[in-house]
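Q: Structure tokens for this one, please.
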Amino acid sequence: MQPAAAQTDRNSDIATAVVTTMRQLGVLGLPRNYEIFYEALKGTNRELSLAVVALGNRPTQDDLDRIGRAFFPQHHGPGIVEQARDVLARELEDIALLLRSERSHIEKYGKILDETSSGLANRSLLSQDLLQKVANAMAVATNSTLDHGRQVATTLSDKTAELESVKSKLEEYKRLADTDPLTHIWNRRAFDKQITGIYTSNRGILFNALILADIDHFKDINDRYGHPVGDKIIQIIAEIFQTSIREDMFVARTGGEEFALIIEGASEDTTYEIAERIRVLIEQTPFTSSQTGTNYGTVTVSMGICMASEAESPEDLYTKADRALYRSKVAGRNRVTRHSTMAGRTGKNWLLYKKD
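A: Here is the predicted structure, written as tokens:
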């Protein structure tokens, strides 16, 4: 185990290594670059570490920003949206020019048809030679119009593909912005939207439940073993949550060691069984280092449940589930509490939830 002083020294060593590495690679000392190298050298996000190593000895700022957008989208949102806006404005202007050109071409073709029709109508006699010349002229005009139309259609198809690409990038950014970078499950931003959606319909209120979970004694884990170990434990627990529920159920990391599950279409008893099954799985999971073999001991979580029908709003639902979670904490931790079973649960004299 590492004492707090040793952990402080480790964090200081990482900070020194970050500055040294950035200087050796010629990387600008920007806060967003520091964040990338700090997380990469800390070693808790293997994909990020591999992405940084793949950059080579002289990474460009564009390369680093691409990594930043992929792993820390919350800090790159304005740039992504601004870039997409510029592309959209440019492509829409090009499309407008194309349509104006096509309109002009069609108007010219229509004018030729009108003039030809008027000329033929004013002639009392039509020779074969004249008709042949008219037919040739119309064929040329028609072919020209058709060729121009095909060119416009091809260009519009290309523009559509480019706009679809922008749309995909924006959708990917939206997904990343709603994803927790450490655990790759939903984050607090996505959770806030999801819980708000419950109260937009009577069905949502009748058929949804909220489970809040918090890792017990997590501060002690960080103090004794260091934040990299704490991060790894969070990742393992997030995976247990995600693999223990149906794909259509919602799970998010809402804080440092806090998780939330929104369960739809289940009774309170079934919701309790889901929470209890996850609690037992976490308690039974061995938390050991694959590199050193160090056993970090048993890790447990406390949980609180509230049915959406017991609350009047998203805020009320969260507060009541949090009260149930707090009851699990004060009752000894490593347990699940239903808000519906709490005496005086509608009262206002509850203590605020306290961290371990």
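A few notes: The chain has twelve helices and five strands. Strands lie at 208-215, 250-253, 258-264, 301-307, 336-338.
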